[in-house]
């Protein structure tokens, strides 16, 4: 499932938007901003992810590793996130990522049976 979640389809546009927005954001950031180093590291990771994401199966592990490093650095700048996702917080359609399976249906049947009793 992680492969589905980290697929290029889901990541490509947001990562490109972050990569496009980072230079101007970093330029506007004061040199002594306490988050500057972290944001510069995030920008470097985004660029590296974009460079390897189209490499097919052999690069999946590298993309996962880079995404874990990005995640470990915390949230990207709020201004960039808003630019990428608008004012709304990023919400992922979990049903699209984790399609309904038999286990969901069986739990529904169990609930229906309990309701009928």
UniProtKB/TrEMBL annotation:
Transmembrane segments: none
Molecular function, one GO term: peroxisome membrane targeting sequence binding
Highest taxon listed in the record's lineage: Eukaryota
PANTHER family membership: PEROXISOMAL BIOGENESIS FACTOR 19 (PTHR12774)
Species lineage: Eukaryota, Fungi, Fungi incertae sedis, Blastocladiomycota, Blastocladiomycetes
GO biological process: protein import into peroxisome membrane
Gene Ontology terms: cellular component: peroxisomal membrane
Positions of the UniProt region annotated as Disordered: 98-117
Protein name, UniProt field: Uncharacterized protein
